[in-house]
């Protein structure tokens, strides 16, 4: 049994949602806990022929046997949370969710401040969800907590206690982080970053787990990095080149077109070091090489893809154990135990 943290290895949008969904189905964790900033990160989860865009609920919600937790370090927008609980009622999410009593609460004033601040909205490219201003209030000790909001009372609990109890009982625990490591307030391309750290150690702290209890850190890299909004992007390609490769994407929260680049080994090595990565999950390999679409066995991959993976492992010093070759969960190559 293991406690595993999932981390985005670039600027977000790496396909963490699919990797989390796959692990939830394959490893059947007893609790799926969310760390990260708050509702400023969107994830798209596909269940059958339906797509769900979520910002608060852990993306592992399709596993109806697992408890779903939102850690104390995560900001909560009550309106967004309630909408998602209603949207996901067929999955019984409202009965399984545990919102930490100490989670900070985003209010209307935070969203308005976020959108009206020219530096944040225009220059930095904030999502306008109120996370930055709310984290300012949290640092000033003036922010409301979930336990102060009447409508949230029925969801409250002690996430740290729940997670640590599961670990002590030798159950599988999955901690899913949001955004990407390169958007970290401390280690990213400041000032074009989010309002807190977005690496494994912070995600563990968000849900109240000590570092010695973490068994695996899986960093998720997309075969071609993407970025929404402003900020440095060393390996960025032109929109025309991206279109030629068939890579046209839009952000889940903002709807803005994503900037696209070539895989950056130097930045990827930095991310692996920052997170103490024990495994790499590689997504969108089918976009890097269309011949690999839907492949389910490593030996069936093209020589081009195998060489890409080999170079990645050599330069980053971490084994690639999960490979996504399409949007469906079945289109995943799992070589964790090989």
From TrEMBL:
Annotated localization: Cytoplasm
Amino-acid positions noted as binding IMP in the UniProt annotation, renumbered to this chain: 13-16, 40-43, 127, 141, 179, 194, 256
Keywords noted in UniProt: Cytoplasm, GTP-binding, Ligase, Magnesium, Metal-binding, Nucleotide-binding, Purine biosynthesis
Keyword presence, Metal-binding: yes
Catalytically driven reaction(s): IMP + L-aspartate + GTP = N(6)-(1,2-dicarboxyethyl)-AMP + GDP + phosphate + 2 H(+)
Enzyme class: ligase
Pathways per UniProt: Purine metabolism; AMP biosynthesis via de novo pathway; AMP from IMP: step 1/2
EC assignment: 6.3.4.4
SMART domains cross-referenced by the UniProt entry: Adenylsucc_synt (SM00788)
Cofactor requirement: Mg(2+)
Residue sites binding substrate per the record: 252-258
Residues that coordinate or bind GTP: 12-18, 42-44, 258, 284-286, 324-326
Main location: cytoplasm
Annotated GO MF terms: adenylosuccinate synthase activity; GTP binding; magnesium ion binding
InterPro entries in UniProt: Adenylosuccin_syn_GTP-bd, Adenylosuccinate_synth_dom1, Adenylosuccinate_synth_dom2, Adenylosuccinate_synth_dom3, Adenylosuccinate_synthetase, P-loop_NTPase
Gene Ontology CC annotations of this record: cytoplasm
Active-site residues, Swiss-Prot/TrEMBL: 13 (proton acceptor), 43 (proton donor)
Chain residues that bind Mg(2+): 13, 42
Cofactor remark from the record: Binds 1 Mg(2+) ion per subunit.
A biological process term (GO) from this entry: 'de novo' AMP biosynthetic process
Function: Plays an important role in the de novo pathway of purine nucleotide biosynthesis. Catalyzes the first committed step in the biosynthesis of AMP from IMP.
Family as reported in the entry's similarity comment: Belongs to the adenylosuccinate synthetase family.
Assembly and binders: Homodimer.
Protein name: Adenylosuccinate synthetase
Organism this protein belongs to: Methanococcus voltae (strain ATCC BAA-1334 / A3)
